Amino acid sequence: MKKEQGLLKTLIEILLISTRLGFTSFGGPVAHLGYFHEEYIRRRRWMDEKSYADLVALCQFLPGPASSQVGIGIGTMRAGVLGGFVSFLGFTLPSVFALIIFALILEGLDVGEIGWIHGLKIVAVAVVAHAIMGMAQKLTPDLKRKAIALLALVGTLLWQATYTQVAVILLAALIGFIIYRNQKDETATNFKLPISRGFAIVCLVLFFALLVLLPILREVTTSQWIAMFDSFYRSGSLVFGGGHVVLPLLEQEFVPTGWLSEEAFLAGYGAAQAVPGPLFTFAAYLGALMNGWTGGLLATIAIFLPAFLLIFGTLPFWDSLRHNPKVKGALMGVNAAVVGILISAFYQPIWTSTILSPIDFAFAAILFSMLVFWKLPPWVVVLTGAIGGALMSYI
């Protein structure tokens, strides 16, 4: 009984915290990692720095929404499979509901001209900068790992292709293995993963089975629901690089086929940039346009289902591998590369699309100081950013 009560209390805690993040985490997947790092690692210490870095590295390898997978992973490590689901629901549902509402209200408007939204983008600049500083101190303490981070930064900035991040991470793993394969890692990591390998194997089998069977079912039936589920599931399964990459894939799935007009798709794209939470919730907007609120719910389930199956299917094996001495060197290289990738994403698109004038930079410096030096809660910084952005639009 006490164990059940303890689990319920933990699940409620996860739900409350992840829901607050779901309402306030603007700025895209890199910013989400910054918000997670601030809330879960710095403030609550649910995981140690190295375990968080290893989880981020794993999710960079996997297709799908990396930040959502990191959130699912943190919830799973905290309270098992139920914790993963609760963490996902809290972080994602605000975005799902808000995106449908925004798509209706903001259709035909220039979202980029709304002042408070620009203020929230400046908040993301401060949050990501803070996260990068903290991770760089832990993950690139020596010149060799600083060099790996620099190579990753340069590579991802100059070679912006779909699989660039995966290629950079694989190369960093090889370099790290060569340099650090005999070096002992004294950093302690302490958490229990409440997922069995049997359950993980079932999830991986189901992931690949659906990838193969759904297109077949689509061909042998005339059900629009199956066709929708297949399109969203395939988009969520085969995308590396985050939400911005999935948008053109979804456009190819639904605009040429006549399910959606180009104008309706672009209106939703504008709204998707405005809401907090994962960009993959753009699927809810598309599904709702095609089949009402039930279509939005189905689309959301379909596009995020691969993320669940992959993270549940790989975590138990990843936890064993990352403690293997032969793998630790490769992980040291990968973690250093992740720092470079985050800096690259911090510049493009976060910085280049947000800091457009001296006043933007000044406001970002104020928000950064509030977060780092005065150590104010993130929600205070977010609220200040929204109000400041609205006021700046009149200057």
From TrEMBL:
Chain ranges passing through the membrane: 81-104, 116-136, 148-179, 199-220, 270-290, 297-318, 330-347, 354-373
Family of this protein: Belongs to the chromate ion transporter (CHR) (TC 2.A.51) family.
Membrane topology recorded in Swiss-Prot or TrEMBL: Multi-pass membrane protein
Protein name in UniProt: Chromate transporter
Subcellular localization, as worded in the UniProt entry: Cell membrane
Chief location bin: membrane
Family annotation (InterPro entries): Chr_Tranpt_l_chain, Chromate_transpt
UniProt keyword annotations, A-Z: Cell membrane, Membrane, Transmembrane, Transmembrane helix
Entry keyword Hydrolase: no
